[in-house]
Give the backbone structure.
Amino acid sequence: MENHSSHQPVRRYQRFKAQERALVSLPLDSEDLPYHIIDICEGGLSFRYLGKKIKASKIPPINLYYEYELIVGDLPVKEVSDYQLIDDVVPVRRKSLCFESLSMEQQNRLSLFIKRFTKPPLDRPIH
């Protein structure tokens, strides 16, 4: 099992726990399956998935959905981390992504997504 450091980086944005039906889609292959978002903020998100580590040298732009409705699309991202949460017959993993240069429209739709499809904040911003 991979060792995940207990060191917490300083966060610029307040994180929010996503509602159950908040999903992220990574168009990596023809299946393009959505994954459940764990938490999200103005700076990025994390999601959980099953199976082997998703290996991609460059993650393509992602899409955010609530149930089947596309809320905001083509968000450029880069990988921050990817580690195993549960070591079982089918491993459960967590991948974290940070948003790169977003257009004003994407920023506005991301803010709307966070307001509408998250629960109360997980932590307070650190300056």
Notes: The first strand starts at residue 16 and ends at 18. DSSP finds one helix and nine strands in the chain. The chain has one domain: 22-121. The helical segments are 104-116.
